[in-house]
Amino acid sequence: MNKFRSFALAFVFLFSIFGLKAQGINFEHGSVSEILEIAKKENKIVFVDCLTDWCGPCKWMSANTFTDPEVGEFFNENFVNYKLDMEKGEGIEFAKKYNVRAYPTLLFINGDGELVHIGIGARDAVGFIELGTSALNPEENLKGLGIRYNVGERNSEFLGIYLKLLNTTGMDISKVLTDWKLEVKPNDLTNEFNWSVFEEVFSGSDNEYFSHVVQNYDAFAKELGKDAVNIKILNTYRKDLYTAISKGTEDEVKQVKNTIKDSGIEGAEKMVLVTEMSIAARAKEWSTYKSLAETVAEQYTDEDWELLNSIAWTYYEQFDGKSDLKNALKWAAKSVGIEAHYYNLDTYGMLLAKLGETKDAKEQLSSAIEKANEEGMDATETKKALQGIE
Q1: Least trusted range by pLDDT, from 89-98, 264-273, 318-327
Q2: Is residue 149 pLDDT above 90, yes or no?
Q3: Beta carbons within 10 angstroms of residue 94's beta carbon
Q4: CB 104 within 8 A of CB 57
Q5: How far apart are CA 42 and CA 379, in angstroms?
Q6: Whole-number percent of the chain with pLDDT over 70
Q7: Which of 18, 226, 363, 377 is the 20 to 30 A CA-CA neighbour of 3?
Q8: 342 and 372 in contact (C-beta within 8 Å)?
Q9: CB neighbours of 202 closer than 8 A, spacing ≥ 6?
Q10: What mean pLDDT is predicted for residues 83-111?
Q11: What are the Cα distances from residue 231, in Å, to 92, 128, 223, 261, 307?
């Protein structure tokens, strides 16, 4: 064998090893029952990527996280990996069985189909490996926490961890929450972990914990930071306002609005307007939406590129008047100026196209496609729109 041939074979061999390491996660194909059989034979847990066709974060994980070499090495060694669309075929019943309501849901089940662990929302490589590590640990996974709870463990940190995990699954948390309240009193919320439980699990204002935070605002802001406390209070009031507008009387809505405005919390006025705007959009009350949106866009979006983009895109979809589209174009441009992303570049380009400014539209849509490639987003519709511009 000559030296060149030896070198070539060695190169192919090394390339093969490198390719194997760099390939990311290997996903199995087959029915749910077939996947469970594989898991039983290999004595492994099944990781199920619960996705939909339209889920942007699902696509982001597929393009970025699942292709990571370290993720592939860890998950291929420890799990049987499986993708399942929750809106097609077996996925429809699977979603009902495991109460999958958000995407992506990162589900871990054993060979008997028992829920072992769960994660909600997209994760980068590091976060995803951390989730998988917890899924393998009986002391940390959902099933293991349930066992620990059933044998009587009741310290506040354990209960908080279990409570937060149960809450993400949509399971009944009432019993564990009652036990947590016995261990954690309103004064204890200045502890960062206890606060994190309060943030994630408590959604309404009709409880002593929320009342205590509002009544002792300065102390909580000093300990936890004004932004964290403001966000929690405003999110709670937003829920109250949604409920009042959806189910209450005019007097009840007025009372909630007054409570919010009188709170003195920074951003309260903006939150009320944005909530009303969102409700008007859901009800397709576009004249109401427009009057609210103009106020919000002009007065409350100095650093909020996402809100500006959302309003501009709604105008693109719902309004055809030239003055409306020009307003939307101005807001889209402002959004891009604050922080350029695929979404607002796409909105800006589509508005230019709708206004007949084809040269600028092509330029912005091309930029949107480039940004989508950088961010791991699916730009299929943008590419179609670009091709359709004459």
Answers
A1: 264-273
A2: yes
A3: 19
A4: yes
A5: 39
A6: 94
A7: 18
A8: yes
A9: 209, 210, 236
A10: 96
A11: 35, 27, 15, 15, 16
The one-letter amino acid at 257: K
- What tens digit of pLDDT does each residue of 259-279 get? 998 888 888 999 999 999 999
Burial class (CB in 10 A: 0-12, 13-18, 19+), 250: exposed
pLDDT at 248: 79
pLDDT at 305 over 90: yes
C-alpha to C-alpha distance for 62 and 84, rounded to whole angstroms:
13
Unique residue bearing structure tokens 């959004």: 335
Reply yes or no: is the peptide bond before residue 104 cis, omega within 30 of 0: yes
Provide the residue type at 54 as one letter: W
Task: Output the average pLDDT for the chain.
Answer: 91
Length of the chain: 390
Residue 290: both structure tokens together = 């427009």
The span from the first CA to the last CA of the chain, in angstroms, equals 60
